[in-house]
Amino acid sequence: MVKSAKVTAYAQVKEWIKESILSGEIPAGSRITVAEIIEKYGVSQMPVREAFQILQGEGFIELLPHRGARVLSLTPQYLTNIYEIRGVVEGLLAKRSMPHLTISGLNRLKELNRQMEGMVQAGIAAEELVKLDRQFHVAIYENSNNPEGMLIYEKYVGLIGSLRNKYGYSSERLADMVKQHWLMIDALQNQDANMLVQIVQAHSEGAMLDLLKAMDN
User: Fold this and answer.
1) Secondary structure of the chain in the HEC alphabet?
2) Are the CB atoms for 155 and 58 separated by under 8 Å?
3) Over the stretch 20-78, which tens digit does the pLDDT of each residue have?
4) Buried b (16+ CB within 10 A) or exposed e, 16-40
5) Dihedral angle at the C-alpha atoms of 131, 135, 137, 138, nearest 10 degrees?
6) Rounded CA gap, 207 and 89, in Å?
């Protein structure tokens, strides 16, 4: 029970801080301290420190030795850099996963994309689509036998997911996302590694451009 309460506490603190950053209540470039968060939310020190660690890992803040943390600026260049790195890493993970993907694994991918296709047609909220999209990609990449690569992929999942939940997707991006997922599945079935890498990287670039446009509006 103690462990469950601890997880709930730091997860809640993390979400409070994250929302304050995304809303602009805590501006980019500003410094936040453990003491300030404790006073603001009435929580103990440990969950705040754990929340800071997670938020640094997700790319929201930078920890400053003995001085709390600095909120990172989510500039177009910063996000472009993130997507460029992820595109390369995801292409590698997909290529490494191809020989190990089973028929049941392929069927799982098809089912996930069918669910996404239905949600897009029904106009389901971005938050649910973010979850399914992540499940789809993890279902491919987890077969790569490359835990270090997976750590890089996972590093900015929280940041990108939070931005998607806030800004959503364009209708064009949603259609392209589902279409590109089907192309990935075809490349996996055909054992076409070069085509798979091209599609994965185009998928990442398309996501980047769509998000940057939404944030600019």
Assistant:
1) CHHHHHHHHHHHHHHHHHHHHHHCCCCCCCEECHHHHHHHHCCCHHHHHHHHHHHHHHCCEEECCCCCEEECCCCHHHHHHHHHHHHHHHHHHHHHHHHHCCHHHHHHHHHHHHHHHHHHHHCCCHHHHHHHHHHHHHHHHCCCCCHHHHHHHHHCHHHHHHHHHHHCCCHHHHHHHHHHHHHHHHHHHCCCHHHHHHHHHHHHHHHHHHHHHHHHC
2) yes
3) 998 889 998 999 999 999 999 899 999 999 999 999 999 999 999 888 899 999 899 99
4) bbbebbbeeebeeeeebebeebeee
5) 130
6) 15
The amino acid present at 120, given as its one-letter code, is: V
Question: Tokens at residue 144, please?
Answer: 């790569």
Residues forming beta bridges with residue 184, ordered by sequence position: none
Per-residue model confidence as pLDDT tens digits over 134-181: 999 999 999 999 999 999 999 888 889 889 888 989 989 999 999 999
Quote the pTM value. 0.83
